[in-house]
Amino acid sequence: MKIHEYQAIEIFKQAGIPVIDGQVAVDADEAARIAEEIGYPVVLKAQVLSGGRGKAGGIRIVEKKGDLKETFRQIKDLKIKDCPVEKVLVVRAVDIKKEFYAGITVDALKSNVVLIVSSSGGVDIEEVARADPRAIRKFYLNEGRSIDKTLWLEFICAIFKDPSHQQKVTAIFQNLIEIFFDHDCSLAEINPLVIDGNGEIFAADAKINFDDNALFRHEDVSEMRDLTFEDPNEMEAKEQGLSFVKLDGNVGCIVNGAGLAMGTMDMIQLLGGQPANFREVGGSSDPEKILHAIKIILKNDRVKAILINIFGGITRCDDIAKGILEAKKQMDIPVPLIVRLTGTNEAQAKEILREQDIDTFPTMREAVVKAVGLGQG
Amino acid sequence: MSILLDEHSKVIVQGITGRDGSFHAKKMLEYGTKIVAGVTPGKGGAEEHGVAVFNSVAEAKDRTQANTAVIYVPAPFAKDAILEDIDAGIELIVCITEGIPVLDMVEVKKAMDGKNIRLVGPNCPGVISPGKSKVGIMPGHIHQPGPVGVVSRSGTLTYEVVYNLTLRGIGQSTCIGLGGDPIIGTRFVEVLEMFEGDDQTKGIVMIGEIGGEDEQVAAEYIKEHVTKPVVGFIAGRTAPAGKRMGHAGAIISSGDSTAEAKRKILKGAGVTVVDYPDEIPAAFEKSLQ
């Protein structure tokens, strides 16, 4: 789960990380009021959950009062990677002397949490990683929150030469580590971390992503979710315990397990069809899930056929069959259902469907070929 | 022989009284898996499908000399379930549970450090050595004993591949689902090494997918160390571009994790890479000739 910069700044502030003064505004009058309080020049920053704000014109400096409202409106009218700009952060413009990158994430291959710091901040950091890997330094948090002092000193002195800076960034990074562990983050990032003309160090941006699997123990985090940025179908699916990604084609797909779902999509496209969605009904089986899945897919009027490809392991085929029957009972399904069920409780499932005259296909390929044909017809 | 699991493996089922735990304990018993105990805290003394239930893994192991554990407990409690196995000295832990917080897994991996313990999963279908024992949630009847070792990052796609192998009369030595989470106990390379050293295994099927760089690491290993034929499939060739996780994720995995990149690198390592899962049996027959 992602949150906006202004929300992440609040978390930074509470943790004691120095940030730049500012407030979020929804209209030009409010922005003008905030700018007046802070004093010009100010920076206006579009609050969207996608990256690439700067390049899209979503971050602009305003030198004087007369320019504020017009610049605010221009930002507000932007669509950044299809996301509308609902809120704009107004902050003091800082006299930046040097920019750094700092981020904490999980390195899955090493099964460890890592702090990444680079003296080339603010720019395209992936490009730095490719072009000059030595400019990127990593500190693995082998001891969790507590850090080995000797190793730490070696790490930090290699990047920050000034002793007063070393002290300040150590405090900042320790707080960032606390944030990461306290909130079960998947990413806590400061880009850029800046040093101003007076030698003060600030987080000039704040980005925090959370581990969806850990939201159950962080109610306060879940409350920060911005629903305006989520696809309503994907949200509804999530509530039902399904994962759903909308695509442009006309073959609706209900598949269990992400791997088989991807394999099914690949086969549909390689055989000349177009899937309407990526839909995975997840682990443990529940007849209700199929009902909801069909309902959500049918909201898309381009769909010409629904392909149900289930290979039952923990998902039981008879539960899926019951779900299909329930769906047929509860609503009019205007497109053909192409059903392939194999695996756990397959025999019971086929029995249930046979009684209702629903045919099943013996293999994935036969089912996909049929569905692709209907999509093209 | 097979790897990891055979007819002598003595298995504890953690979460045996839950919906999935109970159902799959029954399926495993029907398959012939030697389930010696169940564990559900607070339900010690009960019985499930004739299997004695204990309050803790330590107690269950003490009474039954179990060496393998399979976990079906809900995600919020899964970390403690795995740690219990580590403390009790269980040799093979298979974690089926989906949705475990990643920092819980960081903690688990630290606890495993330096210990001779193998964890498979989490968020995986488990391990089966056909005809001998199955530990997990895979449908037993689609498997048959034979010469192919199957290792996969996916669950259901593995079933699809195994099903196609069996239809063609090609049996399996051991099938392992590694699990779909970022942090998992066992990765391709470790399984490839075991298959390479296993007499029963004459060839290997490897099923990967987009994201991460496990397939790249595996390709390097295959090039250097694997003499047996390997057939590969990568899912997600047509998947929409994945959601990226900030800059830090990209810095860590600076490699190209698209399906096409993985297919290319595997081909470069001498792996036969197929376009469709149902082409695997034929490719395998050809590579064995």
- CATH domain fold name of the largest domain in chain B: Rossmann fold
Number of discrete helical segments of chain B:
10
**Which class do the helix and strand fractions of chain B yield?**
alpha/beta
CATH architecture tag of the largest domain in chain B: 3-Layer(aba) Sandwich
Measured as a percent range, the helix fraction of chain A is: 25-40%
Regarding quaternary structure, what we see is heterodimer
What distance lies between the first and last C-alpha atoms of chain B, to the nearest angstrom? 22 Å
Helical content of chain B (DSSP H or I, runs of 4+)? 25-40%
Question: Can you characterise this structure?
Answer:
The complex is a heterodimer of chains A (377) and B (289). Chain A folds into three domains: 21-92, Dna Ligase, domain 1, CATH 3.30.1490.20; 96-222, ATP-grasp fold, B domain (D-amino Acid Aminotransferase, Chain A, domain 1, 2-Layer Sandwich); 231-376, Succinyl-CoA synthetase domains (Rossmann fold, 3-Layer(aba) Sandwich), CATH 3.40.50. Chain A is 39% helix and 25% strand. Chain A has helices at residues 5-15, 28-38, 65-76, 125-131, 149-159, 163-182, 219-222, 232-239, 258-270, 287-298, 317-330, 346-355, 364-376; strands at residues 22-25, 42-47, 59-62, 79-80, 83-84, 87-92, 96-107, 112-118, 136-140, 185-196, 201-203, 207-210, 243-246, 251-255, 277-280, 305-312, 337-343. In chain A, the strands form five sheets. In chain A, strands 7, 8, 9, 10, 11 and 12 form a six-stranded antiparallel beta sheet that branches. The radius of gyration of chain A is 26 Å and the shape is elongated. Chain B has helices at residues 19-31, 57-64, 75-88, 102-112, 156-167, 188-196, 214-225, 246-252, 259-268, 280-288, and strands at residues 11-14, 35-39, 47-48, 51-54, 68-71, 92-95, 118-120, 126-129, 133-136, 145-152, 172-177, 203-209, 230-235, 272-273. Chain B is globular, with a radius of gyration of 19 Å. In chain B, 56% of the residues are buried. Classes of the chains: A alpha+beta (377), B alpha/beta (289). Chains A and B meet through strand 7, strand 8, helix 4, strand 10 and helix 9 of A and helix 1, helix 4, helix 5 and helix 8 of B.
